[in-house]
Amino acid sequence: xxxxxxxxxxxxxxxxxxxxxxxxxxxxxxxxxxxxxxxxxxxxxxxxxxxxxxxxxxxxxxxxxxxxxxxxxxxxxxxxxxxxxxxxxxxxxxxxxxxxxxxxxxxxxxxxxxxxxxxxxxxxxxxxxxxxxxxxxxxxxxxxxxxxxxxxxxxxxxxxxxxxxxxxxxxxx
Length: 173
Description:
Glutaredoxin; four-stranded mixed β-sheet; 4 helices; 6 strands; 32% helix; globular
């Protein structure tokens, strides 16, 4: 199923259970963000445990990086040799980069992933460089489209401008 994957291909849209048994498709998890899929060997491997400790740091950054991270490990120890790659996915589960490393040094570091996500964002985000020609105009156009598409009830309400408050009169005896 995962043989012969290449950059530019569409990654299979797995449906997998989370830690509570609720099933999710990769496309749902990804949403509009880049997705890092780490196909691991499992907790029995000391190299894999170390890599997961490193990925925990990366997971803390995912909110800031506007990206998602999914780790898939096998239920059956006999399947561990088949899962040993990290895949970075762009929009619509398009494979942007594949790391296929069995040992710890063959896996991407959190800094490799950071650099890859930067490169991916440069490729797909029109506003990655806000000073590039045309970005401001495109941002204004999209902002106007969003404002038109937003129902009146959802338009942001701005309270009336307040004037400088005066101190209430104090009664003296």
